[in-house]
Amino acid sequence: xMQKNIDNIIAQSNDLRWQIGDEFHxxxxxxxxxxxxxxxxxxxxxxxxxxxxRLDAKIDKIITSKTWGFPLMFLILAVVLWxxxxxANYPSSxxxxxxxETIHPALKGYASTLGIPWWLDGFLIDGVYLAVAWVxxxxxxxxxxxxxxxxxxxxFGYLPRVAFNLDHLFKLSGAHGKQALTMSMGFxxxxxxxxxxxxxxxxxxxxxxxxxxxxSLCNGRWPTQILIATIFIGAVVPSSFAGIASLGAVIxxxxxxxxxxxxxxxxxxxxVLKGEVSTFNLELPPYRPPRFWKTLYTSLIDRTLIxxxxxxxxxxxxxxxxxxxxxxYVGDVSxxxxxxxxxxxxxxxxxxxxxxxxxxxxxxxxxxxVIPTILMLTVLVTGVSGGEGAGVMFExxxxxATGDLLRAGGWTLLTAVNLMLFSxxxxxxxxxxxxxxxxxxxxxxxVVASILPVILGFVVTFLVAQVWRLLM
Amino acid sequence: MEVKPKSACDSCAHFNAAGLKKLGVxxxxxxxxxxxxxxxxxxxxxVFNALTGLRQHTGNWPxxxxxxxxxxxxxxxxxxxxxxxxxxxxxxxxxxxEEVARNFILFGRPTVTVIVVDxxxxxxNLNLVLQILEITDRAVLCLNLMDEAKRxxxxxxxxxxxxxxxxxxxxxxARYNEGIPELIQTIxxxxxxxxxxxxxxxxxxxKNIEKAVEHLSTEIKKEYPNMPNSRWIAxxxxxxxxxxxxxxxxxxxxxxxx
Amino acid sequence: MNTYNPLVALVIFFGLSLLAYLLLRxxxxxxxxxxxxxxxxxxxxxxxxxxxxxxNENAGKHLNVNDIVRTMRxxxxxxxxxxDVMVNQGLIRMEGDVxxxxxxxxxxxxxxxxxxxxxxxxxxxKTGFSKSEWHELAERKxxxxxxxxxxxxxxxxxxxxxxxxxxxxxxxxxxxxxLKGVPVSELQVNTIGRIINIKDKPDIIYKQILxxxxxxxxxxxxVEKSATRIVFHSEGEAFKLAPILAGNIxxxxxxxxxxxxxxxxxxxxxxxxxTAKIIGISKEIRxxxxxxxxxxxxxxxxxxxxxxxxxxxxxxxxxxxxTSIALRNNQASKILIKx
Lengths: 472, 258, 339
Fold this sequence. Notes:
Chain C: This is DtxR family transcriptional regulator. The structure holds 3 protein chains of 3 kinds. Chain B is of the alpha/beta class.
């Protein structure tokens, strides 16, 4: 009985829809706004119709001007990145000193006095602890600087203007202007960049922003780029230009990343994402002076610590795996050595080597531990003296010593260039992959976002290696 | 069923500061559920933080809070759970955040819905307010960012506004904690039924649509006599909202309509 | 590594890439073709013949077997076989040389047309595919939708009466609103009309019309007519079309006193420091995009002015109901204003 009536109501509503036609939504929206206008007329008194603050208009005029808009934007981005990278050096080395140089030996000493078996001690302290400590030391300081700065700009209202200024460029590649921000956020951390895509309210453009965020060089990868560029790129030019050359190389890689971002965005919007709904609108909110301390606090809690926590959760098992593969032996060789051997051929084809590929496989959880892993594995396979034992990641104090070790591992300029390229173009770290899954709730897009960059990385490094070998 | 317009001064005298306890994220046992709705960029999250003592990030961005945040406070020994809904311009579209907000107000059955609006942009914000008033009849309008409105020399007569909307209106500047005590007091009075709302219903729609809405709404009322938002359901049916149609078919509305 | 040679490696790589491209390329890739081939091609031919007959009979033209074979882009033998099958199934009958639809056949044809137009409507409202792709996608989908699926689709879309080109959609009982329009090419100078239909066939002409940025729902006034071109004003712009293009645009003629407003223009033409009133949003903006704009306050009667110009030209920010909202030019060009 009841059900029949409800079916009846639905049937009636269908007939009525047919009678009313397509105009219903328009009429309703217009009606609501007409009511709103009447109500406002009765109770609100405005001095003049145009109620935009004069100060706001002035700021906007400068920020979006043809002359100043873009220089200002690049200046601000450069300052933020400079503060992040340079400013993070000091706390990073302090943290490294504390966690790696002081606490790690102390823990080891403590463990041996307690008589803990070597494998447990290695697994927990050399594996899990060391990986987590490394991630904290490398990741925390830049994020603690980058996110508050970014959040201050966001709260002030500057970022929507950046999206406004840049939208046309992004439109050309089928993306949304707000992707400029999620991309910049990716320079801090890709996982945070992926979360930030929530501000893009058009399904197609949001997916594009999520899938291409990994092309922003995140702060876990900056140190790798800088180290390799300093050792290998700086060495090929006269020493007075070494600094500039290596800096140029790193910036070149970051810019290349942006180019790939545009290219892949364009390709996605023209192919697989063609049918996704696409809308555009961008509100330019009034400027509001940010509350400095509060912003600092909330961005630290909301962004930095959450991301750091996720990274730690993923890094811990990675540390364990790294220790295990170096210490578990099958026959005469450790699993790590066996893996390196079997990947060496493929690595050579890409202008890389087995050590790098194994390091990238085990370091999926966090880009921060790639270099320490590479160093440890290089010692493991070459037998060069150095390091602290199988499965114990380490870094050398001097850049020269690192260079010597890598060259002893067979590295050339080609290896360095391709490592820099591969560090840009490989799968996102597992924190980011997990975040992509949470944001898209789709296994398909998560797989695309994870596989696509690594395929690109293979293709690009492969081509570079072949052409290099043909020419050199 | 008289409407009692509530201006800030009416309630300050009653506000019992000693009875307020901000409970942060402790949202276990509670007596009332309060939904917090509003456009993006109206300082909704600031109001949320001011009420709960939490420090949710408040970005100067539309669409920041995509998932709903929850918090709680205790006032005069009654516990209130506060749910911060995603900031939306409207409830008529099909985007994810609007769906979250719409479903919560419709089915979450909040005791009171607090609608945060930007005092300087009232007309635009009323779009959402009027839609919410079609769904629920227990609401409070939080006229936020009064400081900015004053700087723009915008004057708002809260009494006429409350009369026209049929719900209490509380002016606030949540950034400076101004008006928050009055807001809490008003929420508690609406929750307890001391203030009875008689919300505005959308008037300016063409005759043929109004007739269709009337007709459907009466039919729905026959099935569910206690449904407070039959007009809204009629709107959604005319819009062809599959979600609502499925719910009606599956009979799940009976639970909500009690 | 002895056999390794970078050149060989490159050749192998490009060879594999080419192979992958040939295999996987959509619509023309081998895998695609194999998949398509295994589908019942016969059904598609039968349905396409029915459609062709229906459209021609509606236009008062009759086709013979030769005409059909000639116009179908299929293997001739298969088409002739299909015609035989169709006669046996009672979908068509032969009257001498002429092929005619039976009642059963024309019902079937209407079902296909219904599926096609509904799917176009769906693509327009619920997806991001561009206008120029709707027809081709619907051409494929119309053969895949069962009657039940078609009805469910119609229901989901609110049983629409017209497809996005302005063509009527047959109801599930086979009823179809008649188009009572006149092609623009036949209009006299000074006639005022509203565009109600833009034919999506042939493809070349349709794409030219799209490039002119002419939309359904626009009101036009013819100002010049000659054998070589037709000029009309619409929404603040002048359009010059060749008769063959104009013939594919249908308008319903409006009474003169239903004032045509010469000063109606589009939001993208608004200049800095000008204020205008919004008259409406073009029907070309559909689905989610349309709802968004309405929600943001771009409703009839709202006042709008330019708030900020963009260093790159677009998007521009418009001040509407006290807030600055940036829109791209292709959106703004579909919002009608009166200065």
